[in-house]
Amino acid sequence: MKGQLKITQSGLFLDAHRRSECSFVSHAHGDHIARHDRTIATQATVALMRHRFGARRLKEALPVAYRKPFGLADLTLELFPAGHVLGSAQLRVTRNGVALGYSGDLCLEATLTAEKAEVVECDVLVLESTFGLPRYVFPPKHEVLRLIRGFVDNALSDRMTPVLLAYALGKAQEILKYLGEAGYRCRAHPIVHAVNRVYLAEGVALPNVELLGPEGPGPGEVVVVPPHLSRSSSILRIERRRSAMLSGWAVDGQRGFRGADAAFPLSDHADFPGLLRYARATGASRVLTVHGHARELAAALCKEGMRAEPLVEREQLALL
Question: pTM of the full predicted structure?
Answer without folding.
Answer: 0.94
